Amino acid sequence: MSEKLKIKLSIANRVYPLTIDASQEEGLRKAAKNIEEMIKQFEQSYSVRDKQDVLAMCALQFASQVEQKSIDKESVSEHVEEKLNALNSLLHSHLVS
């Protein structure tokens, strides 16, 4: 069983205490850092009055990145499948001949 850690992450001037598996710590800290960096970018680029708006923009940005990676992966998978089918047909035609 993995060791549990109690950590505190600060996001948008709020502290969030979490109990996590030790293996999750690095990923969560990097994610919190990325969110903080994105918050700063949005605040510098847009006149945002409310942290809620900035957090919603961050959530949309991260969610769209995840969705785009999924779409890209699906496209690559389809391309690979087409190539494998073509190779399989080519091999089959040479073996049958």
From TrEMBL:
It holds the Pfam family ZapA. GO terms for biological process: cell division. InterPro entries: Cell_div_ZapA-like, Cell_div_ZapA-like_sf. Keywords: Cell cycle, Cell division. This is Cell division protein ZapA. It comes from Mariniflexile soesokkakense.
